[in-house]
Amino acid sequence: MTAQDRTGGLPGYAGHFEEPEGYLDFARYGPPSRDVLDATAQALADSARATHSTVDDLMRAEPRAREAAARLAGTDPGHIVLLPNTSTGLFHAAFGITGGTVLVPSGEFPSNRYPWQRAAELGRAVPRLLEPDQRGLITPDTVRDALTGPGAGDVVAVALSAVDFRTGHRADLAAIREVIGDRLLVVDAIQGFGVADLPWQAADVVVTGGQKWLRAGWGTGFAALSDRALERLEPVLTGWTGVEDAGLFDDREHPPAAGAQRWSITNLSPVTAAAFAAALELVERSGVPAIEEHITTRVAQLIDTVLACGGEVLSPVAPEQRAGIVSFRIPGTDPRLVAKALHGYEVTPTVRADSLRLSAHASTPLAAVDRVHAALASLR
Q1: pTM
Q2: Where are the alpha helices (DSSP H) in the chain?
Q3: How do the pLDDT tens digits run along the chain, 380 residues long?
Q4: Is residue 157 within 8 Å of residue 100, measured between CB atoms?
Q5: If DSSP codes are grouped into helix, strand and coil, which group holds residue 340?
Q6: What is the dihedral of CA 298, 301, 306, 307, to 10 degrees?
Q7: Please, are residues 195 and 292 in contact by the beta-carbon 8 Å criterion?
Q8: Rounded to whole angstroms, how far apart are CA atoms 68 and 154?
Q9: Complete DSSP assignment for 195-258
Q10: How far, in Å, CA of 335 to CA of 190, rounded?
Q11: Cα dihedral angle (34, 36, 39, 40), rounded to 10 degrees?
C-alpha cells in the first residue's frame, strides 16, 4: 500500500501516527501524533532539569497554542483562551448569561446540558429544549420555529453542537446565525473542529477539547469568543490569571482582562500546552480541507459497507450534512454481538445500547474499511 493509498490524497500525514489500522473511535478519543508525544516528553524532560529560566521557557507554549488556535478558528489570539476541556468553556458561557432563555437541543451530549441547568439553578439563564425535525435533526428551520410564538422574545442565546455526537450531522452554522439574528450562538465544536471546514466565525462562543479529532491528548482545549460575547457575557468564573496585571500581587481585586483571557481561572499545565500547540500546528500544516476530504471518502466507504452488509445507517447520507461519524445498527442483531464481531477483526468502534458508531480520521487506511466489511459479513 502506497502513502497515497493510505492517506487518500494526504501523503505523509499518516506517518505522524501509530494507531492500529482498525481504529475507528476518533469521536471518542483520537490517539495523539508522534509530534504530540515528542512535545510532551521534551517539556517533561525540561521540567525535570529545571533552572532559573525553565518555567518561563515552558510557559511560552501557551501563547503558541493560542496563536495556532486563532488561525484555525479565523480570529486573533486576543479572542482565544486555552481551557482544559469543553465543559469548562460551556460553564463559563452558561454562568455568564445574566438572564433570559437559552435554546438547547434535546438529545444533546450531557456536557452541553448540565451547564445551562446549573445556571438556571443560580437564577441566570433558563434552558428551553429545542426539538429536532422529524428526521431527528437540528436545522435552521427548527431554530426558526422555536423563535416564533410565546416566549420567543425571551430567547437570548442558542447553544448547540457543531456536529452531533450520535449521528455526525453537522449544523448549518451560517444559516442558524442568520435565523437567530443578534442573539448569542454558543457552539460545542469538539466533534468537528480541525476536521470539518465550518464557518466558526458565525458563532459567538466556540468551545472545543483537544482529545478527540485534534488528537492532542486529554487536558487540552480552547474557547474563541466574539466581541459580542465579550460584551454580553459576565466573567463570573474569572480567576487570578484572567485579570489585568495578573503578575502584580498587590492585594487588590483587578478588573477582568479585556479579551478572552478573562475566562482563565488559573495557569494551565505548560506540558499540555506544548502538546496542544504541536497538535494544532500539525492540523495547520496538513490543512483542514485536505483532512476533511480524506475523512469524507472513508466515511462514504464505511456507509457503503454497512449498507452492503444489511445494516441501517443512522447518520446523514449526504456528504454536506455529515462529518466523520457513521452510526448504524444491524436489524435483529444485538449491538454487543456486532461489537464482538468487529473486535474479532481488530476494529475499534463506539458501542451504544441501541447502535454502534464508527469514526474515521485522515490517517485511517482503506484496510480499516475492509476489516469492517469482513466483520459484518461474518454475522450472516
Answers
A1: 0.94
A2: 3-7, 34-48, 54-58, 61-73, 86-96, 114-121, 140-146, 173-180, 227-232, 270-286, 288-308, 335-344, 366-377
A3: 333 444 444 778 999 999 999 999 999 999 999 999 999 999 999 999 999 999 999 999 999 999 999 999 999 999 999 999 999 999 999 999 999 999 999 989 999 999 999 999 999 989 999 988 878 889 999 999 999 977 788 999 999 999 999 999 999 999 999 999 999 999 999 999 999 999 999 999 999 999 999 999 999 999 999 999 999 999 999 999 999 999 999 999 999 999 999 999 999 999 999 999 999 999 999 999 999 999 999 999 999 999 999 999 999 888 888 999 999 999 999 999 999 999 999 999 999 999 999 999 999 999 999 999 999 999 98
A4: yes
A5: helix
A6: 140
A7: yes
A8: 37
A9: TS---GGG-SEEEEESSSTT---TT-EEEEE-HHHHHHS--TT--GGGBTTTT--SSSPPPBPS
A10: 25
A11: -110
Burial class (CB in 10 A: 0-12, 13-18, 19+), 149: exposed
Which residue in 169, 155, 269, 162 sits closest to 224, CA to CA? Answer: 162
